[in-house]
Amino acid sequence: MYAQLKLELEADDIDYKKSSNLQGILMENIDTEYAGILHGNQLNPYSQCLIRENGKNIWCIKTLTEEAYEQIIQPMSEVKSVVFKKSGRDVGVTKWQMDRCEERELLDEFYDTSCPKYLDIQFMSPTAFKQDGRYVIYPDLRLIYGSLMRKYSAVSGELDMIDEDLLNQLTDHSSITRYRLQTILFPMEKTNITGFVGNISIRVHGPETLARYVRLLLRFGEFSGVGIKTGMGMGAMRYNRREPK
Amino acid sequence: MYAQLKLELEADDIDYKKSSNLQGILMENIDTEYAGILHGNQLNPYSQCLIRENGKNIWCIKTLTEEAYEQIIQPMSEVKSVVFKKSGRDVGVTKWQMDRCEERELLDEFYDTSCPKYLDIQFMSPTAFKQDGRYVIYPDLRLIYGSLMRKYSAVSGELDMIDEDLLNQLTDHSSITRYRLQTILFPMEKTNITGFVGNISIRVHGPETLARYVRLLLRFGEFSGVGIKTGMGMGAMRYNRREPK
């Protein structure tokens, strides 16, 4: 089960730059031993970010496994306020909203529901990739698919493997046809990382199965995030469904 | 000599989408024989575009050789109004402004003036490249440098050759560190081409000579345009000088 908890924060003057502080707050609110396990993980079973929605600050906490749900979302859904350590500031939580999605749901959609050729993605928090030790600050489709496949296979328990042939197929058969993007700095404790935010449209040509697989990855990506430092608040994405014409 | 003629058009309701019509108007205003020669050229000694500056529509006509200056800029600087053929609409020209730049000026700057590590480019009209028969709609540095080197060498009379080693050096030693870009449609007679507009910052590392060479290409690019269909109004770029700190 994938899950998302949205906490509406009673504060107008904070923004995504506080995301890495929120990760600290999250860690303080969950079981210490489990926090230690997470700390050692290569691929996190959770992601979190702070987004602005209808003029409100929404802290989104997402989990990818039952265990992470119980260990993270459940305790966090009881939280009445978050305290920023440095400033001592106490910010109230005014709304809680939970969304769940079964793994099965995405697979059923893959098998049963036709898929448009054009798929829209919104990158909602600074997104970046790492390749050969270098940061990549634009939406390279191979890196997007690769990141999501790795996260997906890690969660499915099929180890941290990706199918190179499938990745090649996906990359060869898709292209970005439209975008509106900009770089933006993501502050961490000691440094800034550059990431990008904005929108892209992907066109998948060739067999429809490929488009369906991309859709599955993107829907999974809404919970996992994409690229680097999704636990700190980077890489939050949304798959924007197109209305059937 | 590189030259630019700016014509201020007395019309609020036209925009860059009229660029390819303006190319037609340009052709009608110059010597028929020379227009024929231009038509057969692979790499144009001119470029033109319609941009918006301080709320005014400015038609920029740029040339890269003495001959093109005499054959294009000179007659165009006498033009009092432009007539759009289809609609029959007659748009007055209210201002003329000429800028000139000697080849020597760019070379002197290359040899004598130090260059910052960061170079900013603005893509002012829809820009795109063609690679292996496919359109590329993002600012790939190799394609930017390659396009400008090709245009530069064609104008310098060194045939249409580019120095692959130098191109590799430039590409290996530069990266985009910041951008704000979006795709936009460029309408031609029968079809639309997607291009991008916006800003990028390039960081050139390694020997300063490389940065100086990039600067030379970018300054040349202000006259030549970059990428495909610069004669129709695509690929207009500006090198934004950073003020020394």
UniProtKB/TrEMBL annotation, chains A, B:
Family matches, as Gene3D superfamilies: 3.30.70.1900
Keyword tags: Antiviral defense, Endonuclease, Hydrolase, Nuclease
Annotated ranges, domain CRISPR-associated protein Cas6 C-terminal: 121-236
Biological process annotations from GO: defense response to virus
Any coiled-coil regions, as ranges: none
InterPro entries to which the protein is assigned, alphabetical: CRISPR-assoc_Cas6_C, CRISPR-assoc_prot_Cas6
GO molecular function: endonuclease activity; hydrolase activity, acting on ester bonds
UniProt-listed CDD domains: Cas6_III-like (cd21141)
Protein name: CRISPR-associated endoribonuclease Cas6
Organism: Coprococcus catus
